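cron nightly-structures :: item 1 of 1
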Amino acid sequence: MIPKTLLIVCGHEGAGKTRVTLKLESAIDVGVIDKDPINNKFTTARSDNPHPVHQKMRPLVYRMMYRFAEEHLKEGEALS
């Protein structure tokens, strides 16, 4: 297990982020923070939706992801 490491996988929709993340998750036994479930708490729109309200929510979604990751890394816990 890699201690206290944060790996961020990013890219456009359909680029293969989920596929890469699932392979990494099983290969190096790490947990994953998925943006989609967090995003879906606020909107049902796709993450690249150009609507102004949706665009204003994007920073909040990312801050929530980073805060969740930070808390787990501080505790030395695996992400899930």
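cron nightly-structures :: done
The radius of gyration is 14 Å.
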